[in-house]
């Protein structure tokens, strides 16, 4: 009976879309306290800067390694109190998606899946460095992706406009 229940996708020779997290791991971690014990003996007025980046490596036809890098720099005036950099990685199975769906999955779904792990690492390491907890706010990867797409489109339009001016002169 089950052999007769062939899906339309299988009959048509297409594969159904798949997106699955295969593994999450900490790829790299750095924590520095350049001020040393001086950081604990003065009244700090910390200024916190956060940087976020992603990198993707295609492992094979259906597997991707996505790495988000979170860099936190905490300064007191010109002095760096501490600096933490976390490279949180994951291996994802992604197949059966068209190009735009694939781009969205890699640039939005994968980093959004990994970010909570990176937040936890940052918080734990900062506490182990005996500094007050630093729970990073959530990141809207959908909005970041939409902004990056809009900026790329605008840049392409400006280059096209510039090329038109060069041709007419």
Task: Give structural notes.
The structure is a single chain. This protein has 169 residues and is α+β, with helices and mostly antiparallel strands. The chain has a domain of 112 residues: Roll (Bacterial Protein-export protein SecB), CATH 3.10.420.10. Strands 1-4-3-2 form a 4-stranded antiparallel β-sheet, covered by helices on one side. Strand 3 and strand 4 form a beta hairpin. Helix 2 packs across helix 3. The chain is flat. The model has no long low-confidence stretch (mean pLDDT 89).
- The CATH topology name of the domain at 22-133 reads Bacterial Protein-export protein SecB
Count of distinct strands: 4
**Widest sheet: strand order?**
1-4-3-2
Strand residue percentage: 25-35%
Named at the architecture level, the CATH assignment of the domain at 22-133 is Roll
- Work out the helix count: 3
Q: Compute the separation of the termini in Å.
A: 73 Å
N-to-C SSE string, H for helix and E for strand: HEEEEHH
- Poorly predicted tracts of residues: none
SS class: alpha+beta
Mean pLDDT comes to: 89
In helices, the fraction of residues equals 25-40%
Topology:
Blueprint: H1 8-12, E1 18-32, E2 47-58, E3 63-76, E4 79-95, H2 99-128, H3 141-168
Antiparallel strand pairs: 1-4, 2-3, 3-4
Helix pairs in contact: 2-3
